[in-house]
Give the backbone structure.
Amino acid sequence: MLISKGWIQAVALVMLFGFFIMGLLTYYTYTDEPPIPTKVVDAKGQTLFTGEDITAGQEIFLKNGLMEYGSIFGHGAWLGPDFTADYLHRAAEMAIDYYGGSVSDGARQQTISDFKTNRYDSATGELTYSAAQADAFQKLTAYYADFFGSPTTKFGLRPNAITDPEQIRKLTAFFSWSAWAGSTLRPHKNYSYTNNWPPESLVDNRATAEALIWSVLSLVTLLGGIGLLFAAFGRWNFLGWHSREEQRISFRPPDEVMLTPAQRACAGFFLVMAVLFFLQTLLGGAGEHYRAEISNFFGFDLARVLPFNIARTWHLQLAIFWVATSYLAAGIFLVPMITGREPRGQGGLAYALLGALALVVFGSMAGEYAGVFGWIQNGWSWFGHQGFTFLDLGRFWQILLTVGLFFWTVILFRGLRNRLRTEHAGNMPWLFFFAALSIPAFYAVGLLVHTNSDFTTTDFWRFWVVHLWVEDFLELFTTVMVAYIFVLLGVVNQRVAMRLIYLDVVLYSAGGVIGTMHHLYFSGEPALHMALGAFFSAAEVIPLTFLTVEAWSFLQLGAQQSSQTRAPFPHFWSVMFLASVGFWNFLGAGIFGFLINLPIVSYYEIGTALTANHAHAAMMGVYGMLAVGLALFCLRYMIPEKLWSDRAAKISFWSLNLGLAWMVFATLFPLGLIQLYHSVNVSYFDARSLKFISGHTISMLEWLRLPGDALFILGGTLPVIYLCWLGVRHMKKQTPREMPDGVLFVEIQENKKFGGE
C-alpha cells in the first residue's frame, strides 16, 4: 500500500454511512409513498376509475414516450406540460365554476377544501372524490382525448397519438391520481404527499416551511463547508503536488509506442463514438427547433416522421451511448499501458464488445421508434419504449447493455489479472478495476424500475442511475482514468495520484450518495428526503470548488514538465479538454446545479429551462469534454505523426466550448430565469404551457441559440469524426508485439532547482 491506510478507512466510513442512510430512505419510500386506491368513487359511490386503471394509465403514458414530451411530478421533458400541474390547475378551475365561478369567494374556499381534504380510506383502499372533482374528471377526459387525438402536429406529437377512448380514460386516471397526491394533505401533516408541489394558488398549494428552512441551511452548509475545507488544505499539504518536480522527463514520441491488438481495436470504438456524437447533436438541434417552431422545421412538418418525444429520447440515449463508448475504449486502451502486457484474445473480445454495443444502440433506437408509433403492442416494455427518462430503452436492451458492461469489466480483468496479483487492494490497479466494476453494478440498479410500480418508487430507483451512476461512480472512474494517464505520462507519481483519487471518493461520496434525494423533493417522498437531499446536495458543491482549484495544480505540473524538455508534449489538446472539464464541472455541476437544488428554487423551476441549463453544462461540459479528451489521448498513439492534425483538435476544442457557452448563456440560462420569474409571478402551470413557451420573447431566445448550435455541430463534432476516421484508416503499421512499450516518458536527470522540496 503506497499511502496511509487511513484513506481506505475514510472511504469505508463515508460509504457505509451514505448507503446506510440510503437504506433507511428506501424503506420510507415504500412505506410513505402516495397510496394507489383500489378504486375512486364519486360522492354517490359510483366508480370513476380503479387502481388498475391508474397503473394502466401510467403504462400508456410510458409506452407512448410521454415522459419525453411532458412530465409527471416535474420529471421528464419540458416541451409539453407537466401533466400533474396541468390536471390540477384545470380541475381546480372547473371545480370553481362548478361551485359558482371565480367571483364567488365561497366557490374558491370550497374548491380548496375539496382538494385538500384527504378522503382516502386506508382500511378499504377506497378514495372518494367530491361532486366537483368527479365532474372535472369527466370533462378532462374529453379534453385529453382532443389533446392526444389531434390529427395535426400542433403539439409536437405525432398525429392521432392516442385515440382509443378507454386508453384516454385510463391515462386521465393516472393524471388525476398524481394531481390528487399533489394537493391532498398527508395524514397528520399540513402539506400534501408531494410537499405541496406543484405551486397552485387555486388549491392553496404553497411552499412549505421545510422547503424554506432547508434552503437556508443548504446555503450555510455550502459556505461553511468550503471555508473549512480550504482552511484544512491550506494548513496541511495532503496531496504533496511537488514530489514529482524533482525529476525532469522526456515524453516518448507517440510513433515509438507499440500498440496491442485490443488497443488497435479501440479505433473502431472511437469512430462509432464520433458518429453517435454527431447524430446526438443533430437530434438536439431538432429538439431545440420544436421550442422555436413546433410544427415547422424550415418548411417541413418534422413531427410526422420524428415527433419531439422520439427526438428527445434518442438525444438523451445517444448522449449516454457515445460517452460510454469513449470510456469503454479508453479503459481497454489503458490496461496494456498499466500492465506492460496483453493476454491473447483481447482484441477479439474488444471487437465482440463493439458489435454488442452497436446492436444495443441501434436495436434500442429502432424499438423506441416502433414503440411510440404503436408498432409494438405485446412486449412493448421489453422491446419498445420503456418510457422512463434516461432509461427509455426497452428492458431487453437494458439487460443486454448491463451484460455488455460486465463483459467489459471481464476484458479489463483479463488484462489486469497478473498485475492485480502483485498489488495491494488499495493501490491504483485495483482502484482502476473497482471503479470500472462500479459502472455496470450501479447501472444494473435501473432494472429495479418497473412500468407497473408506483411512480414514486420507480422515480426513486431511476435516480439511483441518473444521479449515483452518473454523478458519483462515473465521476470516480473518470478521476481514476485521468489520474492514471498523468501517472503514465510521468506528470505525477502514484502516491499523489492515489491521494487525489481517495480524496475524490471521500468528498464526492460524502454529499453525492445521500444527495441523490435532491431529485426527489416533490415525487411523493416524505419531507425527510427533502431535508437530507438539500443538506447533502449542498455538500456536493464543496469538492467541486476545491478540486477545481486543485485541478489547476495538477495540470500545471504537466505544463512545467513539458517546458523543461526538448521532446514536445504530445497531448496538449487532450489536456486542454481536461482543463475544460474542471471549468464546466464547477460552473455546470456546481453553480448551476446548486442553484436548482435549493428546495425553494426547485419548487418553482423543476422541469423548466434552468434544469436543461444545468443538464447541458454538466453532462456535455464534464462527461462529453472528457470523452473527447480521452479519445484524443488514445488516437494520438494510433495515428502516425505525419497524419496527426493538431489543427483539427484545436478547432474541435474551441468550437465545442464556445458553442456550449453560447448555448448556455445566450439561451438556456436567460430563458430559465424568465421562466422561473413567470412561475413565481404568475403560475407554474402557465410557465410550463405551450402558450408561454411559444411566446415572442421565448421564441427569440430559442432562435438566438442557432449560431452556437451550428458552431458546436459543425466545428465541434466533424473534426472529431475526421480524427477518428484517421485512426481507423491510417492505423500505424507496426510489427505486432505481445509486450508493448508501456512507459510513455523517460526520466533524464535530476532537477536541482526543486531539490529541497
About this structure: Confidence is low (pLDDT under 50) at residues 750-757.
